[in-house]
Amino acid sequence: MLKMKKVWVLFTFVLLLGVLAACGDDTSSGAESNGDSGSETEELSGSVAVDGSGTVYPLMARIAEEYMLTEEENVSVEVARSGTSAGFKKFLVEDGTDFNDASRHIKEEEQQMADDLGIEVKELKVALDGLTFVLHPDNDWATELTEQDVIDIFKADSDIVNWSDINPDFPDEKINTYGPNENHGTYEFFYETILEEQDLKADVNLQQDYSTLVTLVSEDVNGIGFFGFGYYVNNQDQLGAVNVNFGDGPVEPSLDTIAEDGAYAPFTRPVFTYLNVGMAKEKPQVKDYAVYLMEHINTFAGETGFAPLPDEEVQAMVDELKGL
């Protein structure tokens, strides 16, 4: 009888060890497959397609480069810059792009198109940009202009034709105007918000490519153009900028003054990227990139000429993306 008890105890002990070992294996397996634990072993692969705003492009291209270099080398993030409106046309189609960068809010008709197609769109505010008016570096007379001066230079029904029409001390030379074309949210912001939908002069030279605008103004001593602050910052060796007087003295566009409640507020605007939520749920690499993008957006904003957002605002968007 005593011998039988010993055998039974030994059997029970061996059985218990087996159960504990099995539990240990389950726990280990769960940690490896749980992305929230930070021990994810499966590598991501595939592609992420981004198009849209030329203004936002430098910021998005920089983050994509960093993501592929340091985070997921098997994911290809392809960033293009057809312009905000042209980008939405590629985004709001079946099997369209995963993200559309935009230097304006999505329009009502674009949102309706998304709804009709069953595309769930998530707006991600990524930074703040200051619309900047740029000059030839030898232009030393128009470095300080009023907000109304800037408007009148471009507005169709104004009497401003020559520089001397603004100030008799300025050269009696025709002002040559440049800007991005209608594909760009920057054009729409200027036309809708600053000009309040008043027509531009017929001879404004509108271009698709921002680098072309940089070249045109840098080679024209009587030229003035406009685009996002980042393109000015990255071309200060070729361009000067207008300090704009909004009523309390001239304000230089800078990362310190570009803010929705700052000194450069009238010419400040938020910029965005729009995410196809269905793509993020269907393709793990798209969701992963969306989270990475927002977690690092403020790190690279200033580097590429954008004013960063409040940290708590960014964190709220990160939390929403993780919950998709």
TrEMBL record:
A Pfam family: PBP_like_2
Cell location: Cell membrane
Family: Belongs to the PstS family.
Its biological purpose: Involved in the system for phosphate transport across the cytoplasmic membrane. Part of the ABC transporter complex PstSACB involved in phosphate import.
Keyword Endoplasmic reticulum in record: no
Compositionally biased region (Polar residues): 27-38
GO MF annotation: an example: phosphate ion binding
Annotated stretches, region: Disordered: 27-50
Keywords associated with the record: Cell membrane, Lipoprotein, Membrane, Palmitate, Phosphate transport, Signal, Transport
Biological process, per Gene Ontology: phosphate ion transport
Gene Ontology cellular-component annotations: plasma membrane
Protein known as: Phosphate-binding protein
UniProt keyword Cell membrane present: yes
Signal peptide boundaries: 1-24
Organism: Halolactibacillus halophilus
InterPro entries for the chain: PBP_domain (IPR024370), Phos-bd (IPR011862), Phosphate_ABC_transporter (IPR050811)
